Amino acid sequence: HAPVQGTFHLERVPVEDALKAICYHEEASRLDPHYALAYAKLSYAAEFLDTRFGGVTPKEKAELTSKARAAAAQALALDSNLAEAHLAQGRLLADIDFNFTAAETELRRAVALALQNAPGTAALALLPSSLGPLEEGVALTQRAIALAPLRIRSHFNLATYLPALRPYH
């Protein structure tokens, strides 16, 4: 149940839920140290809390970054064909290292490994939406919405991208 509960709490977005997601994924990886998905989701949860919320102290940010890096590396070591492991690594490269070329490679690998993975598709969409071409980002975001219509973040992202494609009158 821990991986499902962790994913549930991370999708809710508040800080408390991100902390719960980290705890659940740590518990899952403790119960099964060979469970690559638990490490990948732990990395994603720690990176999410590190980069998306204010009020995180510099010491906490460093700890979250370290936790995210270690978990992503462990996930990739356990299963180099796990889409979520490449997603976790891609998020770190984009959001922490600002290495967009390497991030794009990881995120495209994640999508290629799991074509029906909405979070991977949505994460990949952020790069062209921010760096260009915007049309590709919009198309990827629309695909992410088709894969997971109830995922609010994708709808929010699409709403921010579309005005840039249309001239104002």
Strand content: under 5%
SSE string: HHHHHHHHH
Identify low-pLDDT runs. none
Helix content: over 70%
Shape: globular
Radius of gyration: 16 Å
* Beta strands, count: 0
Tell me the distance between the termini: 52 Å
The class by helix and strand makeup works out as: mainly alpha
Main beta-sheet strand count, sense and barrel state: none
Number of helices: 9
On the 0-100 scale, what is the average pLDDT?
88
Would you kindly provide a written description of the structure presented here, covering whatever features stand out?
The chain is mostly helical and 169 residues long. Helices cover 80% and strands 0% of the residues.
Brief rundown of the structure:
This protein is mainly alpha-helical and 169 residues long.
Which short descriptors sum up this protein?
single chain, 169 residues, mainly alpha, 9 helices, 0% strand
